[in-house]
Amino acid sequence: MTTTGKPLNRVYAVNRELKALGETPRLRAGRGYYYFDGDAIAWPSSSVYVCYSDDLTVEAWLAEYHLLKATAQAWGRA
Question: Euclidean distance between the first and final Cα of the chain, in Å?
Fold first, then answer.
Protein backbone atom coordinates (compact mmCIF):
# COMPACT_ATOMS: atom_id res chain seq x y z
CA MET A 1 0.00 0.00 0.00
CA THR A 2 1.06 3.53 -0.63
CA THR A 3 0.73 6.33 1.90
CA THR A 4 -2.57 7.26 0.22
CA GLY A 5 -3.98 3.80 0.94
CA LYS A 6 -4.05 2.74 -2.74
CA PRO A 7 -2.51 -0.60 -3.67
CA LEU A 8 0.93 -0.42 -5.22
CA ASN A 9 1.44 -2.02 -8.64
CA ARG A 10 3.17 -5.36 -7.99
CA VAL A 11 5.62 -5.03 -10.92
CA TYR A 12 6.61 -1.57 -9.72
CA ALA A 13 7.10 -2.88 -6.17
CA VAL A 14 9.28 -5.78 -7.36
CA ASN A 15 11.38 -3.48 -9.51
CA ARG A 16 11.78 -1.06 -6.62
CA GLU A 17 13.07 -3.89 -4.43
CA LEU A 18 15.45 -5.14 -7.13
CA LYS A 19 16.84 -1.64 -7.48
CA ALA A 20 17.28 -1.36 -3.71
CA LEU A 21 19.28 -4.61 -3.83
CA GLY A 22 21.53 -3.12 -6.51
CA GLU A 23 20.28 -5.49 -9.21
CA THR A 24 19.94 -4.15 -12.77
CA PRO A 25 17.35 -6.53 -14.32
CA ARG A 26 13.72 -5.42 -14.09
CA LEU A 27 10.50 -7.39 -14.14
CA ARG A 28 8.51 -7.03 -17.38
CA ALA A 29 5.19 -8.44 -18.59
CA GLY A 30 4.80 -10.80 -21.53
CA ARG A 31 1.63 -12.60 -22.70
CA GLY A 32 0.79 -15.08 -19.94
CA TYR A 33 4.18 -14.78 -18.30
CA TYR A 34 6.62 -12.30 -16.79
CA TYR A 35 10.35 -12.06 -17.35
CA PHE A 36 13.41 -10.30 -16.03
CA ASP A 37 15.21 -8.14 -18.61
CA GLY A 38 18.71 -6.68 -18.77
CA ASP A 39 21.51 -9.08 -17.88
CA ALA A 40 18.91 -11.79 -17.19
CA ILE A 41 18.15 -12.12 -20.92
CA ALA A 42 21.38 -14.17 -21.29
CA TRP A 43 20.30 -16.62 -18.56
CA PRO A 44 19.03 -20.08 -19.56
CA SER A 45 15.64 -18.90 -18.30
CA SER A 46 14.50 -15.48 -17.14
CA SER A 47 10.75 -16.19 -17.27
CA VAL A 48 8.13 -16.85 -14.61
CA TYR A 49 4.88 -18.32 -15.92
CA VAL A 50 2.01 -16.68 -14.07
CA CYS A 51 -0.99 -14.85 -15.53
CA TYR A 52 -1.00 -11.91 -13.15
CA SER A 53 1.78 -10.16 -11.28
CA ASP A 54 -0.38 -10.37 -8.16
CA ASP A 55 -0.23 -14.18 -8.33
CA LEU A 56 3.03 -13.89 -6.35
CA THR A 57 3.96 -11.69 -3.42
CA VAL A 58 6.90 -9.30 -3.74
CA GLU A 59 8.91 -11.72 -1.60
CA ALA A 60 8.00 -14.64 -3.87
CA TRP A 61 9.01 -12.62 -6.96
CA LEU A 62 12.38 -11.88 -5.38
CA ALA A 63 12.80 -15.56 -4.51
CA GLU A 64 12.07 -16.46 -8.16
CA TYR A 65 14.62 -13.89 -9.30
CA HIS A 66 17.31 -15.25 -6.97
CA LEU A 67 16.53 -18.84 -8.02
CA LEU A 68 16.82 -17.98 -11.72
CA LYS A 69 20.04 -16.05 -11.08
CA ALA A 70 21.56 -18.89 -9.04
CA THR A 71 20.66 -21.38 -11.79
CA ALA A 72 22.32 -19.13 -14.38
CA GLN A 73 25.43 -18.85 -12.22
CA ALA A 74 25.56 -22.63 -11.79
CA TRP A 75 25.46 -22.95 -15.60
CA GLY A 76 28.15 -20.28 -15.92
CA ARG A 77 25.79 -17.85 -17.64
CA ALA A 78 25.52 -15.01 -15.10
Answer: 33
Q: Beta-strand (E) ranges in 1-78?
A: 27-29, 34-36, 47-48
What's the structural domain count of the chain? Answer: 1
Q: What pTM does this model have?
A: 0.85
Host domain of residue 25? 10-74
- The pLDDT tens digits along the chain (78 residues) read 444 555 569 999 999 999 999 999 999 999 989 999 999 989 999 999 999 999 999 999 999 999 999 999 999 877
Does residue 70 sit within a domain?
yes
